[in-house]
Design a protein that fits this description.
Elements: H1 3-20, H2 27-30, E1 36-41, E2 43-44, H3 47-50, E3 60-61, H4 66-74, E4 79-84, H5 98-114, E5 117-122, H6 161-178, E6 184-188, H7 195-198, H8 212-219, H9 226-240, E7 246-249, E8 270-276, H10 280-283, E9 296-298, E10 307-309, H11 311-328, E11 332-337, H12 346-359, E12 364-366, H13 374-377, H14 401-410
Parallel strand pairs: 1-4, 1-12, 4-5, 5-6, 6-7, 7-8, 8-11
Antiparallel strand pairs: 2-3, 9-10
Helix pairs in contact: 4-5, 6-9, 11-12, 12-14
Length: 421
């Protein structure tokens, strides 16, 4: 064998050996920014609402392909947060749902082949349907634009002890199933706990409380309180899986404002997470509106008057995270953040946010890496940054300022879970 070829083979074998070594999963979260990527999103398909094509043939959609995840990795991402239905049924008797389990197995297999680390984040489960995310879009709340009957709501997990017990068992079952999967680097226990708004409706009334102090004064220690449920889930997971990091966001949709009210666990390998969409008046600004500019002015505190809105404002918001970390000495990550693709200054806003994450050593995953299922992505694409800033365009753009920013940060990734085979 020629010497140059021998050296090349030796080096390549070293790389492959390094890639196959066991990764310290908690260190990925606790020792600086090492994971950068995006969320993918799926929900249960309701044929009577979605029809036969919109979300694919079901039972979970919209469908993702291997190419979808290969493209994510090719852009530089090394993390995918799988925002997915939980493995148990939403209605009693609560038990594993084979179709949901098969779908999650398939996604994890595709992520592994693409060379991506994965976080499993459950949107639904016993006593919680997907319609928490469509709160107020029902036909009773909005007779003109509503698209589903309020009977689809199910927030009973916040008022039914048996549903909470089943949520605990769902995660014990999940952890036992995936504890040895080398790409699974986190379990996000519940995507955006939100009892403060939805209550246990329709079992009980909606609460619509946005002041965390007021909420905890009135409902702390009750079934509405995520702080009494999530430690039970953590304990169940740790009985079967002592190592995989557990990701916990607070009530109030895991917003930064509610982070200080999240009780800190003494269990090992816990990571605390935020979903950062503040100010909502800016990040969710419809394309016809020009109420908020970045940098510029925006009614960031909902008092009816615009305030200065720039990197200094973001720095102040992130001071809440700094205080939490200083007080408890724990890692924090941003497992969701994003902006509607057309808002003024979107690229600079996301760049400033990503820089603020990175100087704090926070891992981050943007919302959203969409699939390529045409009936869906051609009509639901407000957060699909691949479509560029023009709201009239519903296909991938060659380039945009926002795309450039995202690729630049993802290009900093140096770690992969293993060699594609």
């Amino acid at each position: 064998m020629r010497w140059g070829l021998f050296v090349a083979v030796f080096l390549l074998s070293g790389v492959l050996t390094l890639c196959s070594q066991v990764v310290d999963k908690y260190a990925l979260w606790a020792e600086g920014t090492k994971l950068r990527g995006a969320n993918i999103y799926q929900r249960r398909v309701y044929p009577e609402l979605d029809g036969p094509y919109f979300l694919g043939p079901g039972p979970i959609g919209p469908p993702y392909t291997q190419d979808d995840l290969e493209r994510l990795a090719a852009w530089g991402a090394n993390l995918v947060v799988i925002s997915h239905p939980g493995l148990f049924t939403e209605e009693p008797p609560y038990r594993p749902d084979p179709a949901v389990q098969e779908n999650l197995d398939m996604l994890l297999g595709m992520a592994a082949r693409a060379g991506l680390f994965a976080v499993i984040s459950f949107r639904t489960g016993p006593g919680r349907s997907e319609f928490w995310a469509f709160w107020g879009e029902d036909t009773e709340s909005d007779p003109e634009e509503g698209w589903f009957d309020p009977g689809y709501y199910n927030n009973r997990v916040w008022g039914d002890r048996s549903a909470q017990d089943a949520w605990v068992e769902m995660w014990r079952y999940t952890a036992e199933r995936y504890r040895t999967n080398p790409i699974v680097v986190g379990y996000e226990l519940m995507c955006e706990p939100n009892s403060n708004e939805v209550g246990s409706y329709p079992m009980g009334s909606a609460l619509d409380i946005w002041d965390p102090e007021d909420f905890h004064r009135r409902y702390g220690g009750t079934l509405y309180d995520w702080n009494q449920l999530y430690p039970r889930i953590v304990a169940a997971i740790r009985e079967v899986d002592p190592e995989t990091p557990i990701l916990v966001g607070g009530n109030g949709y895991s917003s930064v404002e509610w982070l200080p009210y999240l009780a800190v666990s003494d269990a090992p390998h816990i990571v605390y997470v935020v979903h950062q969409y503040e100010p909502g008046l800016y990040t969710h600004q419809w394309w016809e509106s020009r109420d908020c500019y970045y940098p510029g002015r925006c009614d960031v505190d909902w008092d009816g008057r615009p305030e200065r809105f720039d990197s200094d404002w973001l720095e102040g918001l992130f001071g809440v995270i700094d205080g939490f970390v200083a007080r408890h000495g724990v890692p924090v990550a941003a497992t969701e953040f994003g902006v509607m693709r057309w808002v003024p200054g979107a690229a600079r806003f996301i760049r400033d946010e990503m820089e603020l994450f990175e100087v704090r050593g926070m891992n981050h995953a943007i919302w959203l890496w969409e699939c390529s299922w045409e009936p869906y992505v051609s009509s639901v694409d407000a957060f699909n940054f691949r479509h560029g800033p023009d709201p009239r365009v519903h296909r991938d753009a060659e380039e945009s300022s926002l795309i450039h920013v995202i690729k630049a940060f993802w290009g900093r990734n140096r770690l992969r879970p293993g060699h594609k085979g």
